[in-house]
Amino acid sequence: MPAKYLAFVSLFFTLIYSTSSFALGKLGHQIVCQLAFEHLSPQKQHKLTTLLGAVPIQHQALINQYNYKKKTAPITFANACTWADAIKRLEEFRNYNNWHFMNVPRAQLEIKANDCSKDCLPQAILAHQTILSQHDEKNRWRQAQALLFLGHWLGDLHQPLHISFADDQGGNKIKFSHLGTKCKNLHWYWDECILYKGKQSKAKWLTLLQAKWSQSSQPTWQKNQVWIWANESFQIVRKSSFNYCQINTQGSCQKPKTDIKLPANYLTRNQSVMEQRLLQAAQRLAKMLEYSL
Asked: CA 292, CA 134: separation in Å to the nearest integer?
């Protein structure tokens, strides 16, 4: 077995036992990308599946093992959308780690177009949508990377805490003063615990969101929309019901001075928010893929 391949396999064991900062959980990414794929036209589904075939075998193994699958199993788009998290510790991809989120000043009240110029989540979406739409037949792996990144970025953008502040690492440093959840901080809670409580399984989530797909307005795709979507997340985290911001007299978000305690109705009050964000992410991703593939 080649040394490079062994490195990928051994890396997996480090990844699965470490908590990722700034990463919508595996379930969230799988839901978004599975829904998006199912609503593509047959022609675009075929193009996407063909492009997945350009993923090198060592990266296919990494995707499958990261998702607790046999390393030789065919990869699905749903599982492949976790690839951007699985590669975080690989030296050749470390430059992308800051692309998973967007930090803004505490005094900022809204997200506007081009609020960050590079190395941030909205710009990551724009960059990889452009690469995907170029249809570079000479570098299929570069095209496949753009596809996997794009699917991942849409999920991250719609997890509200991916558009927030550096000093608390997007809520990773906002810890709880009670033990009512296995998730030890607010970011982790919105990545995972809010998804697994109530709806529990991937199948139940997919059934719920499939039923709501046609009931909601269908998006269009224009490049300036990524900033609108980012602002949606930012405005969610600023709400008092999110338990993240303490708004001062100037309207800016101040970090809580102590560990927080979630109210008893926090899950029921906010799980519908996450439902909407997952649905929006999937619908917007489907529209972008129809346009770009």
From this structure: 8
Q: What is the pLDDT of residues 216-245, one digit of tens each?
A: 778 889 999 999 999 999 999 999 999 999
In order of their start, the domains of the chain are: 3-292 (1.10.575.10)
Q: Per the structure block, which two tokens stand in for 249?
A: 């007299």
pTM for the full model? 0.91
Contact 110/235 with Cβ under 8 angstroms? yes
- Each residue's pLDDT tens digit, 28-51: 999 999 999 999 999 999 999 999
CA distance 172 to 174: 6
Distance, in Å, from the CA atom of 129 to the CA atom of 55, rounded to the nearest integer, reads: 18
DSSP calls for 167-228: TTTTTTT-BBSS-SSS--BHHHIIIIIHHHSSS-SHHHHHHHHHHHHTTSPPP---TTHHHH
